[in-house]
Design a protein that fits this description.
Distance between the termini: 41 Å
Largest sheet: 9 strands, mixed
CATH topology of the largest domain: Trna Endonuclease, Chain: A, domain 1
Number of helices: 10
Bound molecules: zinc ion
Number of strands: 14
Low-confidence stretches: none
Number of domains: 3
Shape: elongated
CATH architecture of the largest domain: 3-Layer(aba) Sandwich
Order of helices and strands: EEHEEEHEEEHEEHEEEEHHHHHH
Helix content: 25-40%
CATH class of the largest domain: Alpha Beta
Structural class: alpha+beta
Length: 374
């Protein structure tokens, strides 16, 4: 931690301008205490980490900082604090909020709203994340989770990235835009992974952009929407992924006709070569399924075929029945994904699985639905 209590009950903050000599004097002549548990703290002035306070070993303090902090976390807080100071937001570093028993990394206020900035350098469980987020919300504080930039994000461009469950928690939404803001201490740069399109499991397509620390504003800048041309490139990659997914799936299944997916393909007389472009497309909430979108979308068409329905005549209230029929667990988000998919098919005027449509028409509708709206 960077803030401690002095003997005189004053908060003392370690800042980047302190010289080695000043630090040594502080260390010798002063005592510092944890603002949360009041235990005496060690002032650590070493080679690897920036100067910081630490609890004694075996401390029973419940603060976030009792188990030792990484160098990145310490430095990141200091750099972000400087940014907010420069932006004249009167930031508070590591303020202890007794009513919540929480200590955000930085607290700021803008236009009568309070924001807690949490710079995450190590994974936290979903429960702890929820508990802290709810704590802030109850106190009318807006939490902003900022992830320490993972290695794979450090090249700008458009590519496939992997976002694990822990990091997926920090995904932010602005209108229809989904993105992840990360901050890299070493290069003092924000890396945005934006225009996230879920592919399968932990994989997403993303556009990674950089923003140097001194160009950042508050509230944090929202990434721009992707252009139609770039989005088409992204969808082409998505289609390639779909075909790569399908090939071994067709060849390797041992379940044969008991495999509902293969059965649907067989019954509808689909082949690798004849698979229409509107099967296996990204729609909103596809990440709610643990199977690839192609799987449930083909099953939906098979369901419609068995019930002599078309996207146009299928009642949206029958979606839960489709889940029961295909033995998939129904959740709100999954239901919304299916509904969104049916609406896209309606917009494309698709009546049956063998309909031919121009790729451009499909991409335009998906652009409207996933990017432009909102
Ligand atoms: Zn403590």
């Amino acid at each position: 931690m960077l803030v401690a209590m002095t003997k005189e009950q004053q908060l003392f903050q370690l800042h980047a301008q302190l010289s080695q000599q000043e630090l040594q004097t502080l260390k010798k002549q002063h005592q510092f205490f944890c603002p949360q548990c009041s235990e005496q703290l060690l002032l650590k002035v070493g080679q690897i980490k920036i100067p910081h306070f630490a609890h004694q070993k075996n401390s029973s303090c419940h603060s976030l900082f009792s188990e030792g902090e990484s160098a990145a976390h310490l430095l990141g807080k200091q750099q972000l604090f400087q940014l907010f100071k420069k932006l004249q937001l009167n930031p508070f570093l590591e303020p202890y909020l007794p009513s919540l028993k929480q200590r955000p990394d930085i607290l700021i206020r803008k236009n009568d709203r309070q924001y807690a900035i949490e710079f995450q350098c190590s994974p936290i469980s979903h429960d702890l994340f929820r508990q802290r987020t709810n704590g802030y919300r109850k106190a009318d504080i807006i939490p902003i989770w900022l992830l320490h930039t993972p290695e794979q994000f450090k090249t700008p461009g458009m590519f496939k990235i992997s976002i694990n469950h822990t990091n997926a928690q920090y995904t932010q939404h602005y209108k229809s835009q989904k993105f992840l803001i990360t901050y890299d201490v070493g290069s003092k740069t924000f890396y945005y992974a934006s225009n996230l399109i879920h592919i399968h499991k932990r994989q997403y397509f993303a556009l990674v952009n950089v923003l140097p620390l001194h160009h950042q504003h508050f509230p944090f800048l929202i990434p721009e929407k992707i252009s139609n041309a770039k989005f088409c490139l992204l969808l082409s990659s998505f289609t390639k992924f779909r075909d790569q997914y399908l090939r071994p799936r067709l060849l390797l299944s041992k379940k044969g006709v008991k495999d509902r997916f293969l059965r649907a393909i067989y019954e509808m007389r689909l082949t690798m070569a004849s698979l229409p472009a509107f099967l296996g497309i990204p729609v909103r909430n596809t990440n709610a399924f643990d199977i690839f979108c192609l799987e449930w979308q083909i099953q939906l068409f098979y369901f419609m075929k068995c019930h002599e329905l078309t996207p146009g005549t299928m009642n949206l209230r029958a979606i839960p029945y489709f889940f029961e029929w295909s033995r998939m667990e129904l959740t709100n988000e999954r239901e919304m994904a299916v509904e969104h998919y049916i609406n896209i098919l309606r917009k494309l005027d698709i009546h049956h699985v063998h309909e031919k449509i121009a790729l451009k028409q499909l991409f335009d509708v998906l652009y409207d639905e996933l990017v432009a709206i909102g």
